[in-house]
Specification:
7 helices
Length: 210
C-alpha cells in the first residue's frame, strides 16, 4: 500500500512539474503588451522598421549602445529577426518596441536577454528627440515588471557604459543597485570600454514601494 501511495505521489509531483515547465515555456514563447502612462511596450512588428530607422541610426542613440545598425537594410533585418523569434519556445531574447500612445509609432525600444537560468539582462533606448520626457523610465519599469512578474527571474541586471549619465540615473530611479565596475569590458563590434553593472534581485523588487 505504501508503495502504491508513493508511486501515485511521484506521478502527481511529475505532473505538477510538467505543468510548471510547460507554463514557463509558454511564457518564454511570447510576452504580453505592457501599458504605461505614455507608452505601450509590446513585441516588435514588421511595421516598426520605418520608425526604428528614424532613430536607431542617429549618433546620439548609438553613442552608448553595443549594437549599432548602420543602414535601413540592417534595421529591417533586425526587425525581421525579432519577429521571427516570437512564438519560439526556445527563445531567450525578447526585443520590444515602445509605442507612443498618442502617435501610434515606436519611439523607443527595450530588450530582455536570458543570460543564464533565472538571470535576465535588460536594456532600453529612446528616440533622441523624445529624451527628457520620461519615456526611458517607463520602459525600464515595464521591463522589470516583465522580467520578475512574467518571466519569473531571480535577478535582473543591466550594463551601462561609462559617461552615460542619463541611463545611470534611470537605472537608479527604477530601483537598480550598483553591482560592479569593469574598466575594459567588450562593448560590441570590437570595441572595449569602462562599464558599470547595476542589478536587482526578485526579493528586492517585490519589497519596493509602488
Amino acid at each position: 500500500m505504501r508503495g502504491a501511495i508513493q508511486a501515485r505521489c511521484s506521478k502527481l509531483f511529475q505532473m505538477t512539474q510538467d505543468c510548471v515547465n510547460n507554463s514557463f515555456m509558454n511564457t518564454l514563447a511570447s510576452l504580453p503588451a505592457v501599458e504605461t502612462r505614455q507608452l505601450v511596450l509590446r513585441e516588435i512588428e514588421a511595421r516598426d522598421a520605418e520608425a526604428f530607422a528614424g532613430f536607431m541610426m542617429q549618433e546620439p542613440y548609438q553613442r552608448y549602445i553595443a549594437m549599432r545598425l548602420a543602414s535601413e537594410a540592417e534595421v529591417r533585418a533586425f526587425v525581421t529577426r525579432s519577429v521571427a523569434r516570437q512564438g519560439d519556445e526556445r527563445r531567450n531574447v525578447f526585443h520590444l518596441a515602445a509605442e507612443e500612445k498618442y502617435s501610434g509609432e515606436a519611439v523607443g525600444d527595450g530588450f530582455l536577454i536570458l543570460q543564464r537560468p533565472k538571470s535576465l539582462e535588460i536594456g532600453w533606448g529612446v528616440h533622441p528627440a523624445m529624451w527628457r520626457m520620461g519615456f526611458g523610465t517607463e520602459v525600464g519599469r515595464a521591463l522589470l515588471g516583465l522580467a520578475f512578474e512574467r518571466l519569473r527571474a531571480d535577478r535582473v541586471w543591466c550594463k551601462i557604459m561609462s559617461g552615460n549619465k542619463a541611463s545611470t540615473m534611470l537605472a537608479k530611479r527604477i530601483g537598480l543597485r550598483h553591482m560592479q565596475s569593469h574598466a575594459d569590458f567588450p562593448a560590441g563590434q570590437g570595441r572595449f570600454g569602462a562599464v558599470e553593472f547595476y542589478g536587482l534581485s526578485a526579493e528586492q523588487y517585490f519589497d519596493m514601494a509602488y
